[in-house]
UniProtKB/TrEMBL annotation:
UniProt domain HTH merR-type: residue ranges: 5-74
PANTHER family from the UniProt entry: MERR-FAMILY TRANSCRIPTIONAL REGULATOR (PTHR30204:SF69), REDOX-CYCLING DRUG-SENSING TRANSCRIPTIONAL ACTIVATOR SOXR (PTHR30204)
Pfam families xref list: B12-binding_2, MerR_1
Record's keyword terms, sorted: DNA-binding, Repressor, Transcription, Transcription regulation
Gene Ontology terms, MF aspect: cobalamin binding; DNA binding; DNA-binding transcription factor activity; metal ion binding
Name of the featured protein: MerR family transcriptional regulator
InterPro entries: Cbl-bd_cap, Cobalamin-bd_sf, DNA-bd_dom_put_sf, MerR-type_HTH_dom, MerR_fam, Meth_synthase_dom
Length: 294
């Protein structure tokens, strides 16, 4: 049976605590000392990672490290179990989602999603829990702390849940109904933000045509001629798109004759060249404010 080994830099990324802090916990309190390979290289296994995730969950919720160090594993696990049911506690649920993802625990992941949505509503869950979680997962995949399969596992479960929530929406009657064309260009494969935009638009009574991933630029013209949308909307989050986001947006706009709304984490990270045809939003949640303006 293959045992995954994590370096301290992997652990740092996965639990969100600096390596020097983890070492300090080890030296002062003998908390989760690392194992060593035959060649004396330090590493942590999945049980160590689970323990550290539990310690962080308690520490971020008011328990001092010196007190946690005096507890046995069962006591720590019992206290964390109590925290887990606090679905409005974003830091706890981020840790819970990370733990479920690392273990490919579909039942736990789905329960966390459903419970957060029931407690907070979908919009708050996306804004406060899922978008921060997916950004973290993407960064961890980039540095090799987790496998691509972990990212796919989480993304597909979130995608399935969003589709369920979209189907639940009873579209209100609107006198200001608009048509939106939703798509992802080129190398952008992450649908989470685009699906959430569809949910928001449907909730506000607007019509949407959802095209999803990898739409050729040339096809946009044909779709617009047929569907005649008022706006086009895309979401850019993938680091695979590179740094020249304005070049990508320029290619998209060349094939549009309607305004383009663009949201996603990359929009806040790069200087976007704005023109009359382009409306950048820092995140998908800002779409609600935009809809109130039109």
């Amino acid at each position: 049976m293959h045992v995954r080994k994590y370096s301290i830099s992997d652990i740092e990324g996965l639990i969100g605590i600096k390596a020097h802090t983890i070492r300090a916990w080890e030296i002062r309190y003998n908390l989760v000392p690392p194992k060593r390979t035959a060649t004396n290289i330090r590493y942590y296994d999945e049980e160590d990672l689970k323990m550290l995730l539990n310690i962080v969950a308690l520490n971020e919720n008011g328990y001092k490290i010196s007190k946690i160090a005096q507890m046995n594993k069962k006591k720590i696990a019992d206290l964390v179990l109590q925290l887990k049911t606090d679905w409005s506690n974003e830091s706890v649920q981020l840790i819970n989602l990370s733990n479920a993802t690392i273990k490919y625990d579909e039942a736990s992941f789905s329960k966390i999603l459903a419970s957060c949505i029931a407690e907070l509503g979908l919009t708050k869950t996306m804004d406060q829990v899922l978008f921060p979680f997916m950004k973290k997962v993407g960064m961890l995949w980039q540095i090799g702390a987790i496998d691509p399969s972990h990212e796919h596992f989480a993304a597909n479960l979130i995608r399935d849940r969003l589709i369920v929530e979209i189907d639940k929406v009873h579209k209100p009657k609107s006198n200001d109904q608009r048509r939106f064309l939703l798509f992802l260009p080129g190398a952008e494969l992450h649908e989470t933000g685009l699906l959430f935009a569809r949910y928001l638009l449907k909730s506000c009574g607007h019509e949407t045509l959802y095209l999803g991933q990898q739409i050729p630029y040339s096809d946009l013209k044909k779709v617009i001629e047929s569907y005649k949308p008022d706006y086009a909307l895309t979401v850019l989050t993938s680091l695979n798109l590179g740094k020249d986001i304005n070049k990508i947006l320029g290619k998209v706009i060349e094939n549009l004759d309607v305004p383009l709304i663009v949201a996603g984490s990359l929009i806040s990270e790069f200087d976007i060249v704005v023109n009359d045809q382009l409306k950048p939003l820092k995140n998908v949640c800002d779409l609600v404010a935009f809809l109130e303006e039109i």
